[in-house]
Write a structure and sequence with these properties.
Length: 598
Amino acid sequence: MSATILKFPPDAPVSGVSFNDAPDISGFAEVNLIFWGKGWSATPSPSPDAHTIVSGVRSIVNSGYLSRLTQYGVIGQPKVVATDVADETDPSPANFVTNLESFIQGRIASGKVKAPSADLQSFYGVFFLPGVKSEENPNAAGAHTTFVHGGFTCAKAWLLNDGQLATRFCPIHVFSHEFAEACANKVSVAMTDGSNKEIADICTNDDDISNGYSLHSYYSDEDKKCVLPLTRPISVATGPVAAVSRDGNNIDLAAMGFDPHDADLGFFDAYSASWDKDKRDGRWRGWWAINRGRTMSGGAISLVTRQPTLLDVFIAGTDARVHTAAWDAKWDIFDGGWRGWWQVGDQEVLPGSPVAAVSKGPDQLDIFIAGPGGHVGWAVWDQAVANGAWQPWARVLDMEVPQAAHLCAVSRKPGRIDLFAVASDGTIATVSRHTHWGGWLPIADGKAAPGAPVTAVSRDANSLDVFVVKADGGIYTAPWDQDIDGGLWRAWQRVGELEVKPASQVAAVARASDKLDVFIIGKEGGVWTAAWDKSGGWNAWRKIPNGQATPGSSIAAVSRAPTKLDIFIVGEDNGVWSSAWDRDVAGGDWQGWWPVPN
């Protein structure tokens, strides 16, 4: 596993690094953002507006930007906990720096931002409208200091704004500079001329705009350079990586894991990564923490796209409740700028349980989970119903399933859902809903381990194909077509002779109405694939060269065009790896493997 870290020489020679007694935000920073000035709520909005700046800050604090600060004792993932538009007054250039502490204290007292609850964990960044300057510090674009509220020491910073996104004095760049220094406030960099500087003040020969905003570097004593961490690896649990393609030019991933820099903390957090052929020269970006969403080691995460600009993720959290977070390209703008988490109702679940999620329309989501009572729980969100709130959990009829069983949901036409599960008695069953739920029905008398993964895909609005690994280790499939055999499920058939671990999870993709591709991890961790064509049936399993997954892990697959496939595994190093197939590239051979990010 590796990270992309840009490195630049400092402005002047450095003789060493020392530590002083200044308080710093050394772990799990809680970031509060305040926008001071009447113009923030004006029409038209200033440029960049508040939510653009918030998205950029979320993207930074969710990323591995601070990862090289672990050498200075800075640990844990920051999180944006509050945003506040303070549009009642305008700051006075003559004294807003002097009055900054009392202003922040007032916003805390009025509940506009979060009060500190621990020492050295709260950061308050105050942004100003474009053109506002400080008469007290006319040559500075920002500065940070500490203050005390309720007995807890906090950091504060004022952050000027040149009205841009890609310059060294844009508000997001200034934030990155002051935030890094506040987190490592006790670090003093000694220059050979006898002066002492903070870690970002000696780094002015660089910046990066690959995520759409300018980002500042800081000094790393280990590297003897100014560094700018752009990507980071994560160590991923063996639970499946979730993958979607919002259109033909991008892929998004979600996974549960931990940052190796924080390996001793024992947490498994939610992360996302993104690939876009037009960004970073078509290289993977991430991993971004999804706002410190947390579940048990080995827990699952689900990822859904219901429109080309939208992503929704779901986990069963450590509090035994289902939670969701969202990303909207029109609102969140920058990759990694997630919002959430929000609790979905009060259904009690086993932490880490897989959540099956599906979108039956562009403004609708349905989620399913196997609850502790042996039933299938179901919750619905519709933007046009109940003011866009999640509706209460309900039970999908009376079939019993093991707690934390795998469920699979497919929407093959607008408004319709097909749900699949292996019941407590081993029956492979399905139930369908349009206006109401029909009854649970066995699929051609199929049997598998109770709660085992069932994978289903829809090649068109009137067909379904399901896959399961049975007790003999064979991979089996059953097809359904509304216009064949009176709309009954046809018999199970084995896909080739490959034998894998029973109850392994199959990944399946329908890249055209007459084509299916399936993938699975073999007993020894090899990556295998088989393909079906309507005219020729199933071909033999073949091993994808050089792929080696963690035995017992799962595989994810997407098709972003009828001639393209991308697959993702958890490697033996617990990193995520990708391979790709394009009918028109390299003679149709599989290419890769590449680490994510690369």
